[in-house]
Amino acid sequence: MGRRTWGWYVLAVVVMAVVTADVLVDGPLRHLDWTVHRFCDTRVRGGWMSVVHVFTQLGQRGVLAKYALVPLAILGIARARSLRPLLVPAVVVLLLSLLQVGLKSVIPRTYPFSDTDILWKHGDAYPSGHTLNGFVLVWVAIELLIVVVPVLDRWLTARGRRDVALVTGFLTGAALTLADEHWLTDVLFSLALGPVLLTGLVAAEPFTRPLWRDEPYRGRYPRI
Hints:
mainly alpha; 8 helices; disordered C terminus; PAP2/HPO; transmembrane; Phosphoesterase PA-phosphatase-like protein
């Protein structure tokens, strides 16, 4: 693991710590939350909201499961004639769920669409789990797609699969903020954590590869 990778890890930790501290002490970022909330609540409507909601679906676990994860897992199992293609996705979903529940329980927070920002009350807005889904679960879906259609590996390289997941994660976070479904700081925390989780999945790929399929991947994952 190179210095550049460690540099990104350190930066992510710093961002998460700063954002969390700001939320706890009612700092300038939390005040910015209200500015963004008021803007999105009054300006992002109608057709713009319809467009934004398309991208929020990238972080909806139910939508991803219904239209991507479950169908692709079933096809992968049928192709491999084994339950192996289900193992990694199931473990990733379970660990991601536990992580999200754990993080959200630390600082319970109400959502912006309630027009209240209260900590330590009923709510689990902080941080944004949907944004993390946009990074992690989309990557899982892409890997399952390669399992089902191995020929795609010839043009959708390992770097490309990683980059797609990075883009969808950031798009999901931006869309959730514009749709007023999460405070900006909820999303900022997850935009820092999401790439770290994705990097961990990428680093573990050589060890988890036999669980996905028998055929070797054509390219190694690049360092991030």
